[in-house]
């Protein structure tokens, strides 16, 4: 594969210009993608997302396959 590309490298005259244009386009789209969408903060629902389970909650869970309940 290397030798094939080495023989064809003279055909890639505009490779640098093309890659630069693509990267500039992606950069501009990324810079202006979230502008004007009116993002707002997520409001909490009242319950904490990550908390420790109480012993009653742990006891009410069904056992995992292959494990024996305590």
In short:
With 70 residues, the protein is mainly alpha-helical. It has three helices and no strands.
- Helix-strand pattern, N to C? HHH
Please work out how many helical segments DSSP would assign. Answer: 3
Q: Between the first and last Cα atoms, what is the distance in angstroms?
A: 61 Å
Helical content (DSSP H or I, runs of 4+): 40-55%
Shape: elongated
Beta-strand level of the residues, as a percent range? under 5%
Average predicted local confidence, pLDDT: 79
Low-confidence stretches: none
The tally of strands reads 0
- Kindly name the structural category: mainly alpha
Q: Could you explain the architecture of this structure?
A:
The chain has 70 residues and is mainly α. It has a domain at 1-26. The protein contains three helices and no strands. The protein has helices at 2-8, 15-32, 55-60. The longest helix has 18 residues, at 15-32. It is elongated, with a radius of gyration of 28 Å. It starts with a helix and ends in a 10-residue tail after the last helix.
Question: Mind sketching the topology for me?
Answer:
Blueprint: H1 2-8, H2 15-32, H3 55-60
List its traits.
70 residues, mainly alpha, 3 helices, 0% strand
């Amino acid at each position: 594969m290397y030798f094939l590309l080495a023989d064809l490298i003279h055909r890639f005259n505009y490779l640098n210009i093309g890659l630069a244009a693509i990267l500039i386009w992606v950069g501009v789209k990324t810079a202006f993608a979230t502008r004007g969408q009116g993002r707002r903060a997520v409001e909490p629902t009242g319950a904490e997302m990550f908390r420790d389970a109480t012993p009653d909650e742990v006891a009410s869970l069904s056992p995992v396959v292959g494990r024996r309940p305590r």
